């Protein structure tokens, strides 16, 4: 599977970049809408918590906690949701061209990753403006974001095959993703979770990625060794599932679309 992705790396990159460039084709602002949408989201939460809830937003800590979690979750779930529909969306190409189906899931993942990095290129200066100085640990930030998107790729690859065979998977994914968010400290601080349950959060795959990202952004420290190990474990599980399902169901999924 990885050799196929490597062979089509230029195709994946070119199509991912073109999707960013032409997604808003025909509008006056064009490609700049890719910047405006996340910037409006960041500024909206900053203003709301600075003006309406000034005590909670004091120092910008909660604003950054909330915004960083929401932006990462938005990119993660968008990759899973769009990636799970990749075979259906590109059915005409899969039927006519000898392109491995995982290439289309990878293209969506690369597009989501570019958007995620764009989100944080906007968030980091705002973080500094709010008084949260960045330390040298920020060098780990791209690695954590990339690992989160690889986790999404593994899940999306498995779901794309199941979606082609079982149409109800699309509705199941749409129902589960909003519920999944509330099992994680995305919009609420981790401290509201009872200590007896907090120790089990690592069993929720995206948790360690969100925690590591906030360690770098808010605490100016590198993720601890156990966080790297947990992220590596879940990444291997997600990619392993994606590869296994791809090997077992690729032919059936291509025939079903």
From TrEMBL:
The membrane spanning regions, by residue number, are 31-53, 97-122, 134-160, 228-245
Annotated Gene Ontology cellular component terms: plasma membrane
This entry's Gene Ontology molecular function terms read: ABC-type transporter activity
Query: Is Transmembrane helix among this UniProt entry's keywords?
Result: yes
Q: How does it sit in the membrane?
A: Multi-pass membrane protein
The alphabetical list of record keywords is: Cell membrane, Membrane, Transmembrane, Transmembrane helix, Transport
Cross-referenced Pfam families:
ABC2_membrane (PF01061)
The record's subcellular location field reads:
Cell membrane
**Gene Ontology BP terms:** lipopolysaccharide transport
Per its UniProt record, what InterPro entries does this chain match?
ABC2_TM, ABC2_TM_bact-type
Residue span, ABC transmembrane type-2 domain: 29-249
**Assigned protein family:** Belongs to the ABC-2 integral membrane protein family.
Q: Spell out the protein name for this chain.
A: Transport permease protein
């Amino acid at each position: 599977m990885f050799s196929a992705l490597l062979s089509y790396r230029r195709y994946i990159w070119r199509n991912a970049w073109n999707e960013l460039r032409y997604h808003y084709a025909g509008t006056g602002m064009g490609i700049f809408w890719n910047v405006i949408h996340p910037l409006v989201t960041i500024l909206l939460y900053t203003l709301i918590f600075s003006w309406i809830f000034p005590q909670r937003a004091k120092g910008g800590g909660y604003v950054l906690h909330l915004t960083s979690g929401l932006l990462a979750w938005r990119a993660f779930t968008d990759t899973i949701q769009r990636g799970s529909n990749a075979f259906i969306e590109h059915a005409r190409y899969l039927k006519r061209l000898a392109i491995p189906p995982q290439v289309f899931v990878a293209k969506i993942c690369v597009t989501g990753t570019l958007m995620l990095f764009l989100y944080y290129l906007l968030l980091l200066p705002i973080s500094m403006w709010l008084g949260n100085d960045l330390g040298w640990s920020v060098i780990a930030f791209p690695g954590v974001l990339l690992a989160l998107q690889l986790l999404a790729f593994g899940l999306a690859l498995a779901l794309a095959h199941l979606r082609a065979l079982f149409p109800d998977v699309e509705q199941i994914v749409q129902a589960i993703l909003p519920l999944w968010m509330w099992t994680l400290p995305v919009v609420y601080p981790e401290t509201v979770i009872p200590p007896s349950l907090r120790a089990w959060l690592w069993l929720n795959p995206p948790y360690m990625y969100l925690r590591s990202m906030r360690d770098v952004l808010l605490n100016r420290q590198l993720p601890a060794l156990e966080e790297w190990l947990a992220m590596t474990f879940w990444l291997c599980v997600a990619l392993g599932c994606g590869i296994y399902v791809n090997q077992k169901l690729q032919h059936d999924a291509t025939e079903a679309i």
